[in-house]
Here is the input.
Amino acid sequence: MPPTAFRAPRDLRVLTGRGERGPVVSGAVLVGSLCLLTLAVLTSAPLKLAVPLVLAVVVTAAGYRSLLRWPTLLTGLLLVVLFIPIRRYTLPGSLPFQVEPYRLLTAFVAAGWLASLLVDMRVRLRRTFFDAPLMAIAMSMLISDAVNSGRIHSLDVQTEVVKKLTFFASFFAIAYIIPSVIRRPAHVDLVVKALVGGGTVLAICALWEGWTHYNVFNHLGQFIPVLKLDQLPYSLISNQNNRGGRLRVYGPAQSPIALGALFVILLPLGIYLIKRTAQRRWLAATLLIVFGAIASVSRTPIVMLIAMTIVYWRFRRNDVRRLWPLALPLLLAVHIALPGTIGSISGSFFPKGGIIAEQQAHPGGYGSGRLADLVPGLHEAETHLTFGQGFGTRLTDRSQEKVNAPILDDQWLGLLLETGIVGVVALLWLFVALYRRLMRAARSDDTARAWLFAGIAAAMVAFAVSMATYDTFSFIQQTIVAFVYVGIAGSALALRE
Here is the structure.
């Protein structure tokens, strides 16, 4: 037998068996699916569930060779995260926990990755520059729960703590999966294009929502029958969803702030594609993403844009200076596309009585000002300064029955309370390591790839800044995207080296 017969497969197809058996398996699946569909038609089985299931099985069987490639799997996961609202839709089932599409697909990708680590020599766990900070973050979370086991049991929040730890375990897995399976610059660009393309579609939907007040993502069940609409987050059904008479769009996100923050961290990837391809379509996509961020009518995206501009100024000062004359036409275009939005955002920064007084209102209440709980929170943190009160023990979501803490709108303060100073230092370590390593790579690279390094650094700095303005980790969509950026950074730097 020739030596080439022992070559390891390049993707998840290694788990499906030998290549020549593919047509037989695919044909059997197709025939079985048709029989299942016929049986559903002849009986009283619900066609709303049977038809999409059969269609998914047929598509998978027909194109599994392409669908099981790692870039395709990761792209599909990102599109599910972007387009199917998290904590708004669930899948049918009688499990003790809610099955959401992104959870199911994440579990599938993670399981395939772990299996491939065992049987595929081309997939291996890569050592990255963020190993130590991520390990420190994970240990701070676990230790904080270990030293506060009594508090966890007294509050009866074991389930919530395990759920939150599971969330972050999946985030860490994504950060490691990407650099271990994405090994070509073209594959990095594919993931980047998926994020920017998806963000462009979201921006168009956000503009449509701002014009018509119709959120298409609240009606996905009409197009995907297997999706079951759960309840909207409290902030979206309360009176907080308007500002200065202007609707704050939220699309598939859990809040308008989260949607605006998502658009801002996608923006640098659009800039990278402009520099790399010089194509007008990516310029149009990037402008739409900017419009989407502004359509959220939130202060946080503006603060993030300022932080991002500072990073780009430190990277390529002359390029940023040349863009300043475009600021006025951009504001004019925003005013035409979204009338009243600029005035609403300006009014939010300069409210009646001053922004300091506004942010100090209603201390201890639900949705209090960001500064109102700062001093009380710091005093509370002093009692558990080293390891905090236990990661995941503070429940603030009103849709849950066990609410035991107010919303702080400050993730850094929340992290200090839950994991102590150890957890805060560990997360700061990750952000500083990302920034320094990426900016060093960007300054020493004379190709368009430098804009990818600088862009990820700018996005992560903006994400870190946004953590001071809202409880970021409660909003899963942009947190997942942030960890995807960590993985992309690891992959891109490994390719460079």
